[in-house]
């Protein structure tokens, strides 16, 4: 089993950093799913003599919900070229586009993508958290 520890790949991005991205992606996914779970609008119910002291401002609420996405984008934009490519490659391996044995090819292909679009690309992957987890597992990180 010691042979498994000798990998053909060496991650520039810390696996714990990838796990942080996984948590952020799950939080983003949960926020979207909670909004659309039952398809119904939710209303606040008040006791008979309670006053509506809550002033609903949809823009403020929307901005706070986007904070996680903005934070996710900033984290990705803070990555160097190698780290961003590896994050994308992990998603591809997790999705099954590449096998773990094709790690170098996956990273090379990911490096060809425009780095400034990495956040948009990753945020557009519907199962990003799952694919990153599966990618980490596939390469043994």
TrEMBL record:
<dbReference type="InterPro" id="IPR022254">
    <property type="entry name" value="DUF3775"/>
</dbReference>
<dbReference type="Pfam" id="PF12616">
    <property type="entry name" value="DUF3775"/>
</dbReference>
<protein>
    <submittedName>
        <fullName>DUF3775 domain-containing protein</fullName>
    </submittedName>
</protein>
């Amino acid at each position: 089993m010691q042979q498994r520890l000798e990998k053909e790949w060496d991650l520039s991005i810390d696996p714990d950093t990838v796990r942080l991205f996984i948590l952020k992606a799950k939080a983003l996914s949960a926020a979207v799913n909670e909004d659309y779970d039952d398809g119904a609008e939710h209303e606040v119910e008040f006791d008979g003599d309670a006053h509506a002291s809550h002033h609903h401002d949809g823009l403020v609420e929307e901005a706070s919900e986007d904070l996680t996405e903005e934070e996710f984008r900033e984290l990705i934009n803070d990555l160097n070229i190698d780290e961003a490519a590896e994050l994308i490659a992990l998603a591809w391996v997790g999705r099954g586009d590449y096998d773990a044995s094709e790690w170098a090819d996956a990273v090379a292909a990911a490096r060809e993508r425009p780095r400034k679009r990495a956040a948009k690309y990753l945020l557009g992957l519907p199962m990003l958290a799952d694919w990153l987890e599966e990618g980490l597992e596939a390469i043994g990180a």
